Amino acid sequence: MAQGVPSINIHTTLIVDLRRTALAGTAALIWETLITFGDEVRYIWPKPNNAWIKYAYLFLRYFPLAVHICNRIVSELVFQEIDLGYSALRGWYAVQVLMAHLAMSGVELVMMARVYALYNNSRLIGRGFACLWLIETAVVIIGLVVTLPGLHFEQEFFVTKAPHSFAYLAISTLVSQAVIFALTFAKYLQGEWEGTSLIHLLVRDGTLVYIIFFVSTLTAAIYSLHSFAFGMAEYSWLLTIISTVGCRLILNMQRLPSRSNDPSSSSHRTSSMELTTLYMGRSSVYNV
Predict the structure, then answer these.
(1) Predicted model pTM
(2) Are 211 and 72 in contact (CB under 8 A)?
(3) What is the pLDDT along the chain (288 residues), one digit of tens a residue?
(4) CA atoms of 278 and 271, how far apart (whole Å)
(5) CATH code of the domain containing 223
(6) Domain total for the chain?
(7) Is 89 inside any structural domain?
(8) Are 130 and 61 spatial neighbours (Cβ–Cβ below 8 Å)?
């Protein structure tokens, strides 16, 4: 490696196994992309170019995949002990938390838009969500600034320990997800949408997403804070989870009209009122 990088045996059994685990996370995301590609073509591609949900889906599907591929390439080069430069490696390692935050922001945008529509495009809810995201972003940046100067980097970290900045991301994400879930459940308890397919979908998806992200982000925080040698392998799977959850949320919403077009059904309230959401800064029907 370049000057300043300690000589380390990166071919131990543990590191080889963790490298394979991270690669499995990448393979899982590729598989998920392939098995949902038909739905992507059916529901996402025909959308007009001014439909923000189209770009949200494409971002959530292919940005984490691009990060995965880049990390696997860098990991393989490091594993082969090819000199990539200490500063470049350390910098790329440090900004992984920003990559995860960007991907997580895509999921939160989708979830916030759904809740925003559920509250009839309330300006208070919209501004509250904007402030929540800004605070979350500030916490992530502060975490990066605080931890970067003392960041100890060794070449094996690409397949072992995650930066301590991931703890800041995990905490801010847990708070945001809790707020989104609480608002969704509060609307459900009000009974305004009782018996509709939309509220059942939002509560079901919201509950599953909260549980999934609670477990995955809390695990990331613990691994990061305690410098466990599983952090980067867990990060690989975290990216896969974020991409899968975000895209499934969008696809579930696109399938809703076709499941709710029976006029005799008690859940046939899937109208423009139910599916109204944010389109290019104005209120539009979430027709899919």
Answers:
(1) 0.85
(2) no
(3) 444 444 445 557 777 888 889 999 999 999 999 999 999 999 999 999 999 999 999 999 999 999 999 999 998 888 887 888 888 888 999 999 999 999 999 999 999 999 998 898 999 999 999 999 999 999 999 999 999 887 777 877 877 889 999 999 999 999 999 999 999 989 888 876 666 777 788 888 989 999 999 999 999 999 998 888 888 999 999 999 999 999 999 999 888 765 555 544 444 443 333 333 433 333 333 433
(4) 15
(5) 1.20.1070.10
(6) 1
(7) yes
(8) no
